[in-house]
Design brief:
This protein has about 100 residues and is an all-alpha fold. It contains 3 helices and no strands. The longest helix is centred in the N-terminal third of the chain and has 30 residues, at about 15-40. It starts with 12 loop residues before the first helix and ends with a helix. It is a multi-pass membrane protein.
């Protein structure tokens, strides 16, 4: 930090952002569990197992992005979320929702 740059008071913004990432992670977890449950209730078919495996992979991908972001928010001056990270999170969330919806219907 330079002498001209004032100390940053982040307030509660980083904590709110971490909580938002945790809520989204919880939502993705519920979608993945419901997808697995749907496959188990109907009996394992090859397409159901493949869709469930895809849901779990997307869930793991989202967990990786969310964990990186939550760790980055612990810094005194957290770096911005990269465009690549934002796109990865958005695509994982959307694809997971579509896969889970396809399994539930």
């Amino acid at each position: 930090m330079t002498a001209a740059e004032p100390a940053r008071d982040p307030g509660l913004q980083p904590e709110r952002t971490r909580l938002a990432w945790r809520r989204t992670t919880l939502s993705c977890t519920v979608a993945a569990v419901l997808a697995a449950r749907a496959v188990l209730n109907r009996g394992p078919s090859p397409t159901g197992v493949l869709a469930c495996a895809l849901c779990l992979l997307l869930w793991l991908g989202f967990l990786a992005v969310a964990h990186r972001r939550m760790v980055a928010l612990t810094a005194a001056r957290p770096r911005r979320l990269t465009g690549r990270g934002a796109w990865a999170a958005a695509l994982c969330t959307l694809a997971l929702a579509l896969c889970a919806a396809a399994l539930v219907v």
